[in-house]
Write a structure and sequence with these properties.
Layout (H helix, E strand, L loop, with lengths): L1 H4 L2 H66 L4 H28 L5 H22 L1
């Protein structure tokens, strides 16, 4: 064997070189995996943030639907209308802001088509709500 014919110094150098190569390989694999995990964590964080905004949007929408129903059930009583209309307007502005943020977050993704459909339905809802008033 070649190592048997080598002196101690070169043998140690070859052994150290092999260990160093293994360490570099392990470090490279670890670095690549760490980057992959970091990207996945960021993607999960973004998805969680979008889900939180969607939940907030759904809550605001339900709140405005209930306010609109209260006005409708009161027979458009002036006091009820005067109380709820400013609140509906403020909540609608928050919903619009959330909608714009979410639409910007999904640009170019398959979810973008869903947001176009939601925007059309929201427009129809707002028109019918305004018609009630």
């Amino acid at each position: 064997m070649i190592l048997n014919r080598m002196k101690l110094g070169p043998r140690l150098a070859v052994g150290f070189g092999m260990v160093l190569t293994l360490v570099l390989g392990i470090a490279t694999v670890g670095w690549v995996k760490l980057n992959t995990i970091t990207q996945r964590i960021e993607a999960t964080r973004l998805a969680d943030e979008r889900a939180r905004m969607a939940d907030e949007w759904a809550g605001f929408t339900a709140l405005n639907v209930n306010r609109t129903l209260a006005i409708a059930k009161s027979g458009s009583h002036d006091d009820v209308k005067a109380h709820f209309q400013p609140l509906i307007k403020t909540t609608s502005a928050k919903i619009s802001e959330l909608q714009k943020t979410l639409e910007a977050a999904v640009q170019g993704q398959p979810e973008a088509a869903v947001f176009k459909d939601i925007a059309a339905k929201r427009k129809a809802y707002i028109e019918s709500r305004d018609h009630i008033f």
